[in-house]
Structures are given as C-alpha cells and as structure tokens.
Design goal:
It is built from 12 helices and 10 strands. By secondary structure, it is an alpha/beta fold. It has a single domain, classed as 2-enoyl-CoA Hydratase, Chain A, domain 1 (Alpha-Beta Complex). α1 links the parallel β2 and β3. It is globular. InterPro entries: ClpP/crotonase-like_dom_sf, Enoyl-CoA_hydra/iso. This is Delta(3)-Delta(2)-enoyl-CoA isomerase. Pathway: Lipid metabolism; fatty acid beta-oxidation. Belongs to the enoyl-CoA hydratase/isomerase family.
C-alpha cells in the first residue's frame, strides 16, 4: 500500500509496489492513516510523497468500482477527505511525481505545495473526458486553484491532453523537472529539508495555505478557522 519513512524532520510517504497505485478503499485508507501520523508527529516539518514503479498513481480503482455494489461514487467520496488532508496538513508538502499521474492521481500530486516531476518518462493526464466521466466538483476546484493559466486548464480538462514533465514545467504546473525517478525523489527531499529548516509554525502554515484557496477548502468541507481561534493563536505567540 504505502510506507512512511522519517529522515530527520522530513517524512517520505511512498506508494509501494510496481503496480498502478490505483486509489481503492484500502490504499485511500492507508494514505489517510499515514497523513494522520504525519499530522500528529511534533518533530515532522515537511512531507514528500512519491510512488514506486512506472506510476505515481493511475487514478481511481475503476475495476473495484465496477465489481462493487458501492460503485464509483464511493471512491469519489473517499478521495475527497484525502485531498482535504493534504490541503490542511500543517507542514510544507512536495510531490515527487516519479511516473504517470492520471485523474485522481494527478489530483493527489497537485494538491501538494510543490510538484517535482521526472522528465524522462511519465505524464500528467486528466482522463475523464476520454473515458466519459464528469469531474467531481472538488476536482475542478482543485484544478482551478492550481492551474492558473486558462489555456492550460482548457487543455487539461477539455482536451484531455497528456502533459510531459518538461511541458508541465513550462505551463507552470510543476516546479522542477528531473531526469529520473531517483533524482526527482532526491531533489524533492532536498527541497523539503530546506523548507523544514525554516522552522515555521505548523498551525500558521496550514492556516495560510487554506486562506490561499478558500473556494477549494469550502468544496472540500474543511472547517473554517474561527476569528476567536486566530486571535488566541496570535495572543499565544506574544
């Protein structure tokens, strides 16, 4: 499923195995458990997420949905709090896109603060148009929050364009392109270590991140921080 490794103050969350890392109930639960552990670790200060094999994640587990009485809507519902976990996580996050990231897999990647991607293979791809599925509202809100160029957003959503690492960098979707899976993980960890070294207040970091994306947070049903809670936090820092 996944592993969570700690290197100093950086946590490395890895989707394990050589498969497609399709997001079914078990993997989603495993990822959320790992993120809960990260959230509760007082000494952790940054998170890197990577995948083993050819895929970062190939999206929802459509085979599970087809063979289950619960269907695709259950997976759409289960991924929503996973995205919310990432958006509200009280530390900087870096996605090391080590292979193909499609549909919900791409959503997991861009939900991170920084996205590093390998340039020798792998694409970002929202496949919904090609397979005849509409976007969940929170998918669209996440894409609108993270893909700010309207032509790129059009190509991703209304053209189902497969975007390589180099093109994703040019279009502003990813921050850095590396030449191999091992290099992208190493560079993502290096970035995470730099961010962890800033020693920012974790609660403040999460609060500011969520304030940057108010529409997305509302769509994800992340509880708003009350004015009273903000005031108490500032008072405690004085």
């Amino acid at each position: 499923m996944c592993t969570l490794e700690k290197r100093g103050r950086v946590l490395i969350l890895t989707l394990t195995g050589s498969g497609e890392h399709r997001l079914g109930p078990d993997l989603i639960s495993s990822l959320r458990s790992a993120l809960a552990t990260a959230r509760s670790d007082p000494s952790a200060a940054a998170l890197v997420t990577a995948g083993e094999g050819r895929f970062f994640s190939n999206g929802l587990d459509l085979a599970w949905a087809k063979n289950s009485s619960e269907g695709l809507s259950t997976l759409v519902r289960l991924v929503k709090p996973l995205i919310a976990d990432l958006i509200s996580l009280p530390m900087p996050t870096v996605a090391a896109v080590t292979g193909h990231a499609a549909a919900a897999g791409m959503m997991i990647a861009v939900a991170h603060d920084y996205v590093y991607m390998r340039g020798d293979r792998g694409v970002l791809y929202m496949s919904e148009l090609d397979i005849g599925l509409p976007f969940p509202d929170y998918f669209m809100d996440l894409m609108q929050a993270k893909i700010t160029d309207p032509r790129t957003l059009r190509d991703v959503t209304l053209r189902a364009k497969k975007i390589t690492g180099t093109e994703a960098k040019e279009r502003g979707i990813v921050d850095k392109v590396c030449q191999s899976a091992s290099e992208v993980v190493a560079e993502a960890v290096k970035m995470a270590e730099e961010l962890a070294g800033r020693n920012w207040d974790k609660g403040v970091y999460a609060s500011i991140r969520m304030s940057v994306y108010p529409k997305l947070c509302k769509s994800l049903e992340i509880p708003e921080e009350s004015d009273e809670a903000v005031t108490k936090h500032f008072a405690s820092r004085l």
